[in-house]
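Bit of a strange request maybe. I'm writing a small parser for structure token strings and I need a real example to test against, not something I typed by hand. Could someone generate the tokens for this chain?
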Amino acid sequence: MMRPALASPPNFPQAGHMSDENPKAPPGWVLQTAKEVFSHHAGPFYFRAEGPTPGIAFYSEPRHANIQGVLHGGILLTLADMSLFDIARRKFGRIRGFTLTLNSEFVNPGRIGVFIEASGEVTGGGKSIIFARGLVASEGETLMTYSGSLRRFE
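Reply from user aminoacidic:
Good idea to test on real output. This should exercise your parser:
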């Protein structure tokens, strides 16, 4: 039995991918340059310019939406995971590691066509494990809070 095609939810943007248009990075942000990694295909992502304040962001596009026409939780979790590494790098310098844990609480739905930003802080850790927490926000509204841990390796 064939299922009927799903109609777009009301107010769902029908425009093409914004990434095809190569939006400019906002002031103070730089576009991710690594094209061979997963995050390039999920993004494109922007990093806050060098300095002590962590930050990773992206422009939400129709391809980042779920069937309800709001941001899919998977893109927000990808952003949070990347943010854990940016938070650690800003505090400890470049590290090699992997995500041990990533906990999240979705607070509000994310809109399509806006700049979505993640930032946070290191909360503890030592030589091998780093703990951090943060939030994902857009237009002054929190979309998700997260916490997690990274395990360093050589």
